[in-house]
Amino acid sequence: MLTEVAAPVTGLLPLTREVVVRAWIAAERLQKTAPSEEPDPIARLGDTARSMSQAAHVILHARNHAARTAQTPASSPASPTRPSASRRR
User: Is the pTM of this model over 0.85?
Assistant: First the structure.
C-alpha cells in the first residue's frame, strides 16, 4: 500500500504533487499577466506542493524501513542445550 502512495514516479502522492505544481506554475503565470488583489492562493499551492513532497519522502522512508525489517531473518530458536560434563554421571 505504501508503494502505491509514495512510489517516486508512479505513486499517488507524487503524481498529485505534480498536478499541484503545474497548477501553481500556471497560476503564477496568470497572475503576472493579470494582477490580482489576492496572491495567497498561489502561495498556498506552493506550500501544498512542498508539504506533499515532504510527506512522500517520509512515507517512502517508512516503506523502505518496513521492507528492510521484513527481510531481516527471524532469530533462530534456541538449540537444545546438552548438560555439561560435570553434570553427567
Answer: no
Q: Cell 498529485 identifies what position?
A: 16
Measured distance CA(23)–CA(4) in Å, rounded: 23
* ∠ Cα 6 8 13 (to 5°): 40
The string of pLDDT tens digits covering residues 31-70 is 776 555 655 777 888 888 888 888 888 888 888 888 888 7
Is residue 3 within 8 Å of residue 11, measured between CB atoms? yes
* Cα–Cα distance for residue pair 30/24, rounded to 1 Å: 10
